[in-house]
């Protein structure tokens, strides 16, 4: 150790003086200094052990004593027993074994007793050191397999630079597993150089540093493949099994909680009933080409048949976002992870900034390769799109009613109907920008400040039209013409310019029902509020009006 026993006892006395009295602690030094590593800036880590079954605080206290940073942790014997029991349970599935739990146990088992040696020894005896070494070997080996399999998949998908990074991660994890077999179980990777020196195997140490120094140029597929091949061979030499160079053992599988919904040409992928991803044309084509359960090379070849050049990065993005998963035949899902890093799991990208967010044909996307996170919870996304479609149906109905009222000279009816049409159009405008629930109809024109500046020119026109009165055929015709122009402006803004003229014919009504049914299915799946109760009948009839003859 870099500190003498006397120095450590002095630091302990001064540290205990800052703690509440009344407890007889057994004390052990743990961490890098106890392991024989450390340097002048390393923490002094004291573990205080109480014989009780009490639940003591998990959070450490940080003290500053004689120029040293001292970390104080407390554990009761009851807590330590629980800790070792949980470790044994977790060891049955290394992929789910907590790194923090493994680290806590390792630090105690390799600690140096300072006070109450008998109690410290009793605590350590709860788990034989050889058993702990086996658990640690398996834990690192599991992670090495996952990293190397993931590197293999990324190389297959053309993500060369990311593949190199995971090859390096797998290399470190393989060597840590090998070192743990020799008793070097300290988890922190930064001390690996000293662990390799102590292992007294210069051949392994030198080969590791040789591979770690390899730096393939960005995008150099050949060099990346050679590096991964060398890492796999080295791993095999060190006894790691389960990672032969066989990409056909990697299969593309369905991810739990992921569903696909298409409206028109737009593909939407809903993750966990919470997030909606909208796919651009090329990303959507790759998604539609997926046949789950097939080997990765076959899936990649099928994606290439869509005409989309270089589909690999799109498949890699689907994988990164947790929309699909990779599995290794006989080895379960591939879930790579790094020590002392963010936990593994699907990435959630920043929300899309495209405006307006929605159209009657689907969420807006940033481009043909977009895999964009819609900045709305899934249920609000569904509710807003259903409201957008329904508002356009109401516009069609109100314009038809307005035309009839003008033909009959029903001027007051025409005024009210025109306002109804305009309010419905504004409801569509707000819905397209993700506003849900909506303001009251009479408040819509005043609340245009909720929308992006590009939508503001509609405000003045809407406010003027809402004040219009009709007292003659001429004023009625002018109102109808200006209302149609304002509705067209709103629809062009929200991507509804080609909305069917719902009530012109059986064909246009059928087209309206088909469009509405697409969105109702998503809304029902997400338990979103339906725009009208009658919509449930359209769902029950699978998109056909309920009284239509076969």
What does this structure look like?
The chain has 550 residues and is an alpha+beta fold. The chain has helices at residues 5-16, 32-35, 77-90, 99-109, 117-124, 129-156, 160-181, 192-199, 202-212, 221-237, 281-288, 296-304, 312-320, 378-407, 411-432, 457-466, 473-494, 506-525, 535-540; strands at residues 26-30, 44-50, 61-65, 68-76, 112-115, 250-254, 258-263, 266-271, 275-279, 324-328, 332-333, 358-359, 362-363, 371-373. The protein folds into four domains: 5-127, Beta Polymerase, domain 2, CATH 3.30.460.10; 133-245, Up-down Bundle (Four Helix Bundle (Hemerythrin (Met), subunit A)), CATH 1.20.120.330; 250-373, no CATH class; 378-540. It has a five-stranded mixed beta sheet, with helices on both faces. The chain has a four-stranded antiparallel beta sheet with strand order 7-8-9-14, with helices on both faces. It has a three-stranded antiparallel beta sheet with strand order 6-10-11. A hairpin with a 2-residue loop joins β7 (258-263) and β8 (266-271). α6 runs antiparallel to α7. Mean pLDDT is 89; it is low at 533-544.
Biggest beta sheet summary: 5 strands, mixed
How many domains make up the coordinates? Answer: 4
Strand segment tally: 14
Instruction: Indicate the low-confidence ranges by residue numbers.
Output: 533-544
Q: Could you estimate the helical fraction of the residues in percent? A: 40-55%
Spatial arrangement of strands, main beta sheet: 3-4-2-1-5
Alpha-carbon distance between the two ends: 87 Å
Beta percentage is 5-15%
Tell me the number of helical segments per DSSP (H or I, 4 or more residues long).
19
What's the alpha carbon Rg, rounded to whole Å? 33 Å
Structural class: alpha+beta
What is the global morphology?
elongated
Mean pLDDT: 89
Protein name: DNA polymerase III subunit beta
